[in-house]
User: Fold this.
Amino acid sequence: MAFSVAIATGLYGLSFGALSVAAGLDLLQTMALSLLLFSGGSQFAFIGVIAGGGSGVSAMSAAALLGIRNGVYGMQVNVLLRPSRWRKLPAAHLTIDESVATATGQTDPDEQRRGFWAAGIGVFVLWNLFTLVGALAGNAMGDPARWGLDGAAVAAFLGLLWPRIRSREPAAIAVVCAVVTLIAVPLVPPGVPILLAAVVAAVLGLSGLGPATEGLEPDVEPYPSGHAGPGSAGSGQGTA
Amino acid sequence: MSLWGWVLLACAVSIATKFLGFLVPARMLDNPRMLRVAGSLTIGLLAALTATNTFASGQGLVVDARVVALAAAAVALWLRAPFLVVVAVGAFAAGVARLLGAA
Assistant:
C-alpha cells in the first residue's frame, strides 16, 4: 500500500513542478520547496500566492499556516512510533499527510513503523523526482495560460480541498472563507485576502464549528473508500 | 527580502513546525479545540486559494476561462477521479474555453 501512496504523490509532484515555474519561481527555488519544505499543500499555497501577484511574506505566511497540521501529525507520529532521539529529525521531515495516513492505517506497531518510513521515503524520492520533471516540462512549455495551466492550479486547489469537506460544518467554513477572500481582493494587496480568510477560519474553529479532526485528512486520498485517514486514531471521524 | 529569502524562510518554518510536534507532550493531542483550529485553518486556506486562483486578477475580480476549469474539476472530483486527472481536466477545460473565445 505504501508503494501506491508513493506513486500517487509522485504524479502529484509533476503538477507542482509545472505550476511552480509557471508561477514565476525558477528551477532551483522550486526544488528547494520540494526538498526542504516538503509538504504538498503548503508548497501549492506558496506558489498560488506568488502566481496571484502576492508578496513573499504573504506566500510564506500562507504556507506556514497550512503547515500547522503537520505539527499535529508530528505529535501523532511521536506517540505512535516513539522514535529514538536521532531519528526524530528525519522522522519529522518525513511527517506529511501520506506517511501519517499510512502509519495510522495499520494496527501492528512494526507495520506502523514500516509503513511510515516506506511511505515517507518513497513519497520524498518520487515527489522530488517528479517536481524536477514537472519544472523542466513547465520551463519548456512557455506561456502558462496558453496551456490552461492557470486552470490546472484552480483544479489542484479544489482537489486538495474536496476530500476535507465531508459534512456541513467544513463546507460552511469553506464557503465563508471563499466569500471573505473575494470581498477582500479589491480592498487589500494580493496575498493578504488569503491570510484574512485564515483568521476567519481560525475564529470559526475556536468557536467550535465542526468535529475535532475535520479537515485533517491527507492532501491526496490514495485509498479506496472506507479506509481510515490520520484522524482515525481515537476520534470519531467519518470516512467518505 | 528577495523571493529566495522567503522560499528558504518558508522551508525553515515548515521543518520547525514538524519538529515541534515531536517535542511537545502527547497530552496536547487531547485538546480538541487546537485540533479544530488546525483543521478549519486548512479548509479555510484551501478555500481561499481556490477562490483567488479562480477569480482574482491582481486586485480585480474577473470571470474568465478559469471558472470553466473550476466547474470541470468539480465534476471530475464528484466522479471520484484521481488528483492528477482532476488537474489535467482543469487545464484542458481552461484551454478549450480559451479556444472557444473565453478570456
In short: Chain A touches chain B through 109 residues (CB under 8 Å).
